[in-house]
Recover the amino acids of this structure.
């Protein structure tokens, strides 16, 4: 620190390229999604990710199904995977029915409370009076055990903390230090990040920290929960990005049809492995379609 | 296996999805003052709850699925509660963890709308799959939040498709508990405040459960269809009372509110519900 | 519902008077504070509240100390009670040293995680590797027990869920249905509310629900967590109300001196029991002082 | 018992509180890249951490007590981190629960500033009271967040008063664990990533702990005071190295940043720290 020049040290940027992010993901096996970050999913597949155990958000669709379609998933926590009124998740359905993936029969409690428990550094969470009469304890014996409340002597269920080695999150805006704003979400991101060893955020836009400071209550992930930031404009295509762009419904329908028709590899070759990088992917979709998706958000 | 047919109320004044939303809204008078919620694939329930807050249940509080709004006031009904536009005009943002809190506490969560790939005549629902677990013929999307049927005060079941494959004698797996197969009522071991499913909505009819044995019972049949249509398209026995009324069509006020305040873009007018 | 008149039913207001709130508090024994709602504290004392078990927020000052000064507290969860650089809590100190109140030797974990555990409907929370080498397990045997993790076999500490019969919260703004905005807080309010049987919010301002809808992310308490709302302008005097008014430091110093000098009853007679209601209290403080406190917030 | 005296650095160029803040900030170079926090009565640490982010630790992340801001950028230093104005210019709002999460995880929380009514020569702090527990001579304010000293990577201790009653041979109760009285180092059973107190700041001096037995050791004495002043006002033995430097006064840049960006209203210039 020199008194003469008044030059203060700079804060370190956490920005990395999407390719670097893909390589980091491919080195790990236990992957959590904070939401559905499609650009990171494509990058992970391009980098050769495989043998993954995936912990999705409470509801997941293409992010998980595409990983399954590509054969990259070994094990999956199933809470809800599907496309709601557009249909079932075709790659998941096929893989689960043919038993080429292992399924953990989860639910909202397993995922949300298990993640919260890991985020809070607790070993497990006691859970009372929920699972009786359902088939979940029978189908999920490793995740539902019994514990006695030391204060009342009552026996309850217990679920384990749900940690991950890497966590991927889509944000609408982030600064290069990791402060990230997720719009249109129900706040699964921060707990997922806290419960993970390494957190990558992809952001539609990189903004200044001054802009982050304008609305500190909207910061979904403070910088200290984030290890790397990737600039990924339209990075959630073909899924929705709150306030930024709509779901590309025709593209999603194309995906669903192709996988149902056994043409998953063709979809992957065209939209994942074919484009040399994410810019090439966006060129393939085309500016007209991308900018039109920004209507009515 | 024949292709599913589109349910039509025999008039073009309103769609069957609109009728379902309106009828759901009326029965939410029971829930005035309570907190409730909707989840995945909840296009019709979203409209219904929002309509009820304007008409019969002004003190109802609801959270709108993954968009995380409490009491949203959107005028352009989205297809999914997961769509961020479903958050528009909300009074508060509810983190997912809060939903789990309410679910765990039980008594604080009054009602919810649940569905499934199967429902049986005791109101148990299945989101897991069909067939033996080590060789499922059809893998379902997963249990998600329907587990809260074990905890919330009561729930409503709804199906966008009515068929012998959806309504079955006994579900292959229980994701959300209804009533005991032995006719003794609610399953044992659940929260005492949680009383089970109240009503079941399909594109053909509304059903409730008998007071003594808690078996499915026909409550009303939608315009355009008959008791026989319902029974023919169901894979389980349903108690049929001597008198089965027709589901009352939307009033002018209901339709006006629905179309001018909730669903200006006609999502429900175009939304297809099916049977067979 | 009449089709002709287009008159829709009105939502029920939850607004009650401060006096009604005081009476409701006085009927209950186990009281939690979400922050430090002074008008409700004064109203509770005027209504004759006594024999209370108090669960304050992580740091508390006058709200708790005044209840103790008035002899209304039987038992207290102590995490931090004091006035930071202004000094110790004098009524608490005297009562604790003379053993006229019972003290639960708590800490941030006991209060925050215990409240979270109750808010989440869990019976207890397992806690690992924190208390060794401290005196807390010895001083607090009822709140720190042992439990074995059913997944790993490791023994950990357990803390109990911390519920209350009534919870009092200060908000800067609330609508008459209970939607409340707490500014300048660290979000203890929602868990405290969820962990309570009955929740009363006092608000500096009553605002329209349309205004609440302008910033839904700022709603600290959605209406369904609130049972009653009280309009209490300057209701946190002499403490701070974020963005609304500063702490009245001279008044607080007067309180501290009077209690230290054994003149607690004189303070209570002047500022709590003397004024016939909260409007009389505000007249006593005076418009000049109140409006001046709005500077620089 | 004599009244406490105001500590004065022997010059009017800066106050002792400013000196303490500046010296604290320098030593936070060690924490660059980590996450830390301050709690109650943290007027001086608040200024110190904020100054460190401008000078030696640009990658430090900190949460500012009950005001719940991460990396706030206030220019008018408040007396308390509880004051909502301490939130000004924050990058994020951190709910109290998140602090507990970080505390429980341990390794994610790099450092914090802790105090107490007593500290002993092994760095254990007491917030509970003085005297037998069933008849305390002095009841302390409570353990609050100092418990996290058992969990965070390391902590800094600070005291606005230096006296024989504050620095004691052995605290009456341990609210936050330092080192074992047998000289074996960190207490057993805590998180392995949690290594204990690093430095102790008082109005008279800075102390650290010996590498082998982890006993208090004088590191520097503030301008205006001597080693003898420190020992005379301490109630415990302190290791005194052969050479004890004077704490370096604030540089022009440090003072300029402190007074123009952090504390424009002179909170620290007027803030009295005491001894005796």
């Amino acid at each position: 620190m020199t008194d003469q020049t008044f030059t203060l040290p700079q804060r370190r940027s956490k920005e990395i390229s999407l390719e670097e992010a893909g390589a980091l993901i491919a080195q790990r096996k236990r992957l959590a999604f904070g939401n559905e970050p499609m650009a990171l999913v494509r990058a992970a597949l391009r980098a050769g990710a495989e043998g993954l155990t995936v912990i999705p958000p409470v509801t997941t669709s293409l992010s998980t199904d595409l990983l399954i379609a590509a054969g990259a998933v070994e094990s999956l926590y199933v809470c809800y995977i599907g496309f709601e009124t557009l249909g079932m998740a075709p790659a998941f359905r096929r893989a689960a029915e043919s038993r080429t993936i292992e399924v953990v029969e989860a639910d909202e409690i397993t995922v949300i409370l298990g993640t919260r428990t890991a985020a809070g550094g607790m070993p497990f969470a006691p859970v009372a009076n929920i699972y009786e009469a359902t088939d979940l304890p029978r189908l999920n014996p490793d995740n539902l055990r019994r514990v006695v409340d030391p204060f009342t002597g009552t026996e309850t269920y217990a679920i384990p903390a749900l940690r991950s080695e890497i966590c991927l999150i889509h944000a609408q805006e982030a600064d290069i230090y990791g402060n990230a704003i997720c719009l249109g979400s129900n706040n699964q991101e921060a707990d997922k990040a806290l419960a993970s060893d390494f957190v990558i955020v992809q952001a539609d836009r990189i903004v200044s920290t001054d802009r982050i400071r304008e609305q500190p209550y909207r910061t979904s992930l403070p910088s200290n929960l984030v290890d790397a930031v990737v600039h990924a404009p339209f990075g959630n295509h073909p899924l929705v990005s709150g306030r930024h762009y709509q779901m590309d419904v025709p593209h999603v329908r194309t995906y669903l049809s192709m996988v149902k028709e056994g043409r998953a590899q063709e979809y992957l070759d065209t939209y994942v492995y074919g484009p040399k990088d994410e810019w090439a992917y966006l060129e393939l979709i085309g500016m007209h379609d991308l900018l039109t998706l920004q209507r009515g958000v | 296996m024949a292709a599913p047919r589109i349910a039509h109320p025999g008039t073009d004044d309103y769609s069957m999805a609109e009728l379902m939303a309106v009828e759901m809204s009326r029965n939410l008078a029971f829930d005035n003052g309570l907190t409730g919620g909707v989840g995945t694939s909840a296009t019709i329930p979203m409209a219904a709850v929002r309509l009820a807050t304007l008409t019969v249940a002004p003190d109802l509080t609801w959270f709108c699925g993954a968009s995380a709004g409490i009491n949203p006031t959107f005028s352009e009904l989205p297809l999914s509660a997961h769509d961020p536009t479903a958050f528009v005009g909300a009074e508060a943002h509810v983190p997912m963890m809060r939903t789990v809190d309410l679910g765990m506490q039980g008594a604080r969560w009054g009602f919810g709308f649940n569905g499934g790939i199967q429902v049986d005549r005791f109101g148990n629902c299945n989101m897991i799959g069909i067939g033996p677990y080590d060789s499922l013929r059809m893998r379902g999307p997963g249990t998600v939040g329907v587990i809260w049927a074990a905890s919330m005060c009561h729930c409503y079941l709804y199906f966008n498709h009515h068929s012998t494959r959806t309504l079955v004698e006994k579900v292959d797996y229980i994701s959300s508990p209804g009533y005991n197969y032995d006719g003794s009522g609610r399953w044992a071991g659940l929260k005492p405040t949680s009383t089970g499913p109240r009503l079941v909505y399909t594109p053909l009819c509304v059903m409730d459960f008998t007071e003594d044995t808690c078996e499915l019972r026909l409550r009303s049949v939608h315009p355009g269809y008959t008791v026989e249509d319902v029974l023919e398209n169901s894979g389980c026995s349903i108690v049929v009372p001597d008198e089965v009324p027709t589901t009352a069509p939307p009033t002018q006020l209901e339709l006006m509110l629905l179309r001018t305040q909730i669903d200006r873009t006609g999502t429900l007018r175009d939304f297809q519900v099916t049977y067979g």
Q: What stands out?
A: The longest strand of chain B covers residues 216-221.
